[in-house]
Amino acid sequence: MIRIKLSKLFSDCFSVLIHFLLAGGIIISSTTIFNLERRRLSMTITIISILLYAIYGILKKSQKCSQAAIIFVSLYYCFIILFFSIYTWDVSDIYIINFLIILPFYFLMFNSMTEKELQKAATAFVILVSAIGVMSILLFYGLQFKMIHPTGYYLSKWLFPPQTIGHFHGIQYLSQEGRNTSFFPEAPAYAYLLCTALLCNITVAKYHQKIFNSILVITIFTSASKMGFLAVGAYIVYAVAISPTSSSIMRILKVFLTITTFAIIFALLNEVMLEKLESHSAAVRSSHMLIEVQAFLESPLIGHGLGSYSSGSSNSVTSLLADGGIFLWGLYYFPIIGYFLKEFLLHKKIKFISIIYLGIFALCVFQNFTLSLMVTAYFWYLLLTEKRKKNVTEILQQKYSLNLH
Question: In whole angstroms, what is the distance from residue 93 CA to residue 217 CA?
Answer without folding.
Answer: 36
